[in-house]
Design a protein that fits this description.
The complex is a heterodimer. Chain A is mostly beta strands. In chain A, 0% of the residues lie in helices and 48% in strands. The chains are: A mainly beta, B mainly beta. At the A-B interface, strand 5, strand 6, strand 10 and strand 11 of A face strand 4, strand 5, strand 9 and strand 10 of B.
């Protein structure tokens, strides 16, 4: 079983400052992927960044970076130079990984996402 | 490229009625997922289709929920009869088999309110 914990129900940050959103996980899968999604007030889920457990380097996508510490089982999202449009709900999620060829023989899904409860980020002007 | 679409965006029904939610995945995506977020709780996995086959339906709450995926294209999720606890936002997502990251593209969700 997989579990994602986001301990910050809400976070506030000043515009142009950096902010870190915490995410810790627990899994028995040897390989897994970690994701961050953004959900603005309009409701859609927007993919931000992905980190594979086997990746040697931390993932970065523009102003987003993922601080992956495998030994601590943490995958914190860092947003640099916050903008007002960054105000949204942020979800951390994980997914077990399996070779595509074994998917149908696995007896279960290897691709479902397990989500945390989310962190509501508010960027103040 | 069109994204994942869901219909309706919002549905309000009375307890005991039937509702059918629809999801159109991104063209060419074999994998289609349904998730649900009940107010204040985590987004929970419901089920996973690979083309027209149910790969994993371990997250389906009970037999009042029926999901289908006709011809491996769009999918429907029927709730019959609806109960108050079924209220929430139902998300559909799709992904391409073999994509390195398994990234799932989400639709805008259907907000279901059962009164």
């Amino acid at each position: 079983a997989q579990k994602i914990t986001q301990t910050q129900p809400g976070m506030f940050v000043q515009e142009k400052e950096a902010v870190t959103l915490d995410c810790t996980y627990d899994t028995s899968d040897p390989s897994y992927g970690l994701f961050w999604y953004k959900q603005p007030s309009s409701g859609e889920m927007i993919f931000l960044i992905y980190q594979g457990s086997y990746d040697q380097q931390n993932a970065t996508e523009g102003r987003y970076s993922l601080n992956f510490q495998k030994a601590r089982k943490s995958a914190n999202l860092v947003i640099s130079a916050s903008q007002l449009g960054d105000s949204a709900m942020y979800f951390c999620a994980m997914q077990p990984l399996a070779r595509v060829t074994t998917l149908r023989n696995s007896g279960g899904s290897n691709y479902k996402l397990t989500f945390g409860k989310g962190t509501l980020l508010t960027v103040n002007p | 490229e069109a994204g994942v679409t869901q219909f309706p965006s919002h549905s309000v029904i009375e307890k005991g009625q039937t509702v059918t939610l629809r999801c159109d995945p991104i063209s060419g995506h074999d994998n289609l997922y349904w998730y649900r977020r009940v107010m204040g709780k985590e987004i929970k996995f419901l089920l996973h289709f690979v083309k027209e086959s149910k790969q994993d339906e371990s997250g389906m709450p009970n037999n009042r929920f029926l999901a289908e995926r006709t011809g491996g294209t769009y999918s429907t999720l029927k709730v019959q009869p609806a109960e108050l606890e079924d209220s929430g936002v139902y998300f559909c997502a799709s992904s391409h088999t073999g994509a390195p990251s398994g990234e799932q593209y989400f639709g805008p969700g259907t907000r279901l309110t059962v009164t």
